[in-house]
Write a structure and sequence with these properties.
Structural class: mainly alpha
Shape: globular
Organism: Candidatus Thiodiazotropha endolucinida
Protein name: Nitrile hydratase beta subunit domain-containing protein
Helix content: 55-70%
Radius of gyration: 18 Å
Number of domains: 1
Distance between the termini: 52 Å
Largest sheet: none
Strand content: under 5%
């Protein structure tokens, strides 16, 4: 049996001590979880051999950007003296995000396969932290659905 890294317990205590608000289910994400389709099913339906969904790299890049403090996407493109220092301070620490993702997966998304569960947990985190709200996410999802299905 594999040993549990003792640093995990330290991290878990540190994250719990931060007293992040207890999360509640997000109804839109619960609907997606219940009605959505996973990449493995879509691959089989459309005869795709690639085991990774085409959006996975975008998901990883989004997580990296959030960890780098890119809440305001173009802030990083400005000369340093013109950047909004308040925006530059905002970031979602990668370790904290991964810890929160683990907590959300254990609580809400454990039956969803990877990487779909990572996507749901990230959306949950961003809604929880007020980066966008459930209604905005629903509008954008509908917009994308219309574009994809209009062809």
């Amino acid at each position: 049996m594999a040993e549990i890294n003792p640093k995990y317990f330290e991290l878990d205590k540190e994250m719990r001590d931060r007293d992040l608000d207890e999360s509640t289910p997000v109804s839109l994400l619960e609907d997606v979880k219940g009605k959505g389709r996973v990449w493995d099913d879509l691959c089989e339906q459309y005869g795709v051999d690639n085991p990774d969904p085409p959006w996975r790299i975008t998901l990883e890049a989004t997580c990296d950007m959030l960890a780098g403090g890119y809440w305001e996407t173009f802030n990083v493109c400005k000369p340093k003296e013109e950047r909004d220092s308040e925006e530059e301070q905002k970031h979602l620490d990668a370790v904290e995000r991964r810890w929160e993702e683990d907590q959300l997966v254990n609580k809400y998304y454990d039956e969803v396969p990877f990487p779909e569960r990572q996507l749901l947990a990230l959306a949950h985190t961003l809604i929880r932290r007020g980066l966008f709200d459930e209604e905005e996410l629903a509008r954008r999802m509908e917009e994308i659905d219309r574009r994809l299905n209009s062809a």
